[in-house]
Amino acid sequence: MQTEIIEEPINLAGDVRISSLAVSPCAEYLSFLESRFEEANWNLYKANTYQAALDELTGRRVPVVLCECQLPDGNWKDLLSQLGPMPERPRLIVFSRNADERLWAEVLNMGGFDLLAVPFREDELLFTIGSAWLDWELEQEWRRFRCPRTVRASGAR
To answer: Into how many domains does the chain fold?
Structure first.
């Protein structure tokens, strides 16, 4: 007897409220991302510069950051260096009109999550954000599993 396996894509839209930060000086990109996030019922914070992105991340739990390759006051590498030490390090997705294999390899080798080409393909955009969120969520779950915060009756951990 042969078992048929039916694989259905995970549809995170509407099921999970993903929060992300989009960093770009381009109002058109931010507007496009905002409309896709609204359709998916996800939260999107926006920043136009590297410094504004750092301000948005302060005190806010953001699992996914989308960053344009070049910013007026820095670039994606500057932002990645600030994300690394964060206790719940967001996943960085870089986007660029000049996306190519070299840039993709650089993003991955430096610790970024992925590279998206602009103009965005909506299916690829949503899949990549969902994958980055899932990777972040699994890391958080792993940390809770490895370091449970339960207190024994004796008071020892």
So the answer is: 1
